[in-house]
Specification:
The complex is a heterodimer of chains A (166) and B (250). By secondary structure, chain A is of the alpha/beta class. Chain A has helices at residues 10-17, 29-32, 58-72, 94-103, 111-119; strands at 7-8, 20-21, 24-28, 35-41, 44-49, 76-81, 105-106, 135-139, 147-152, 158-162. Chain A starts with 6 loop residues before the first strand and ends with a strand. Chain B has helices at residues 3-24, 33-61, 67-72, 83-86, 92-113, 119-147, 151-164, 176-183, 194-207, 230-238, 240-244. The chains are: A alpha/beta (166), B mainly alpha (250).
């Protein structure tokens, strides 16, 4: 069955929300959209997570962190890595986008705007430091697989931009 | 064991593994910090994709081997990657020229693999294609920039394309496993990708003010495990840890 819905047992929300992305500590994995389902059956919690990028080294850590958080809450758990449906930046929640911005990472633009920025040199990404749109692409690849490098022309701040993935 | 499926998966995964290793060699050696990071990011994407393929292959093999065993403990003749991806990083033009010639193919291949009746493979393709479209943008961009840059950069990328051209035709050869998988609706008929590949590559070379090589002499063998001398050296690096400290784990 193809579904983009999340199935999270309400009892597990608050536990899972405490787990954060090890590379972006301000961002909860729930706001990141990597947890696709979390259900309890026969006292065992089954959690399905999906990687942002195939090579994302954070996935193993996220899996371990989920297990630990659930264990602390008294649950035994099994973690499954699923690839389908593939993660998209649309799954980052509004709160997650805000957390990214506050942390100094520009949140992903829509597909077309993203292409304009990364390919055609258009200046649409807002500087996370001063808010200016007068920013330039330094490199399509940044400090992690999911980010590109930018610099603000006005305040000179270098910052990461979370690439659109759809 | 479903031998054809297993070999088909290895054929796809080995390309990413070997190219990932080549790009990873640039870690700390890229011409600038940004390109260094870009190339290693591409390497990381490819290794991530390889893990998905090899995990699936290990499941099919069902003989207790893990993804790591498949990646690290085969002999040279058992690697099924095309000759193109094992060619060395002679200079930056070679590295990006090779990446470009592979990316155009890779993108077209994954686009077809998304339609595979094998749901695991179509899910992997669906995931990978998003990453590979970034790779293709990056490498096309550099071929254009080098070709349309200075006389020296133009000459270097032209030389790279001329030397690598002989390895492009092999991308469209079919192995026994490939043919069987196409018949079952699992595989991709690569012969059908050839025409649009050369058209697309030709267009970009023209845009980059480069000449399309005329040579019709093409090398082959990688898909059957017969490699150029470069693969052995690459594997000795890749397999060093597992060979020196068997069964070690992180």
């Amino acid at each position: 069955m193809i579904t983009t819905e999340q199935h999270i047992d309400p009892k597990l929300w608050s536990i899972l929300e405490q787990v954060s992305d090890p590379e972006i500590p301000v961002l909860s994995i729930m706001d990141m959209g990597v947890v696709r389902s979390a259900t309890i059956s026969n006292d065992i919690v089954k959690v399905e997570i999906t990687p942002t990028y195939s090579g994302c080294p954070a996935m193993d850590v996220i899996g371990d962190d989920i297990k630990k958080a659930l264990k602390d809450a008294g649950y035994i758990s099994e973690i499954d890595l699923i690839l389908h449906p593939a993660w998209t930046t649309d799954w980052i929640t509004p709160r997650g986008r805000k957390a990214l911005e506050n942390y100094g990472i520009a949140a992903p633009l829509e597909t077309e705007a993203d292409k304009d920025v990364l390919l055609n040199g258009k200046r649409l990404v807002k500087c996370t430091n001063c808010g200016s749109q007068n920013t330039r692409l330094v490199s399509q690849f940044g400090s992690t697989a999911c980010k590109a490098q930018f610099q603000c022309v006005d305040c000179q701040e270098p910052f990461d931009y979370f690439k659109c993935l759809k | 064991m479903k031998e054809n499926l297993y070999n088909f998966i290895l054929g796809i995964a080995d390309n990413s593994l070997i190219l990932g290793q080549r790009m990873g060699e640039l870690c700390g050696h890229g011409p600038s910090l940004e390109t260094d990071i870009a190339c290693t990011n591409i390497s990381l994407d490819l290794f991530g994709q390889v893990r998905s393929y090899f995990q699936y292959a290990a499941k099919i093999a069902g003989d207790g081997r893990t993804e790591d065993d498949i990646a690290m403990l085969r002999k040279e003749r058992e690697y099924k990657n095309v000759l193109l991806v094992e060619q060395p990083n002679i200079d930056f033009a070679f590295t990006l020229g090779r990446q470009f010639l592979f990316d155009v193919y890779h993108l077209a291949f994954l686009s077809e693999l998304q339609k595979s009746t094998d749901l695991t493979l179509s899910a992997i393709a669906n995931k990978c294609i998003k990453e590979v479209s970034y790779h293709e943008r990056f490498s096309s961009d550099w071929v254009r920039r080098l070709g349309d840059g200075t006389n020296e950069s133009n000459q270097k990328i032209q030389e790279a394309i001329n030397s690598l051209w002989t390895y492009t035709d092999e991308l469209f050869h079919q192995t026994k496993a490939d043919i069987a998988m196409v018949e079952q609706g699992i595989g991709v008929d690569v012969t059908k990708l050839k025409e649009s590949y050369y058209m697309q590559v030709g267009q970009l070379l023209e845009e980059a003010t480069l000449e399309i090589p005329e040579s019709k002499w093409f090398q082959k063998g990688g898909k059957e495990g017969v490699h150029t001398e470069h693969l052995g050296y690459l594997l000795s690096d890749l397999q060093y840890m597992q060979r020196t400290y068997p069964n070690m784990e992180w």
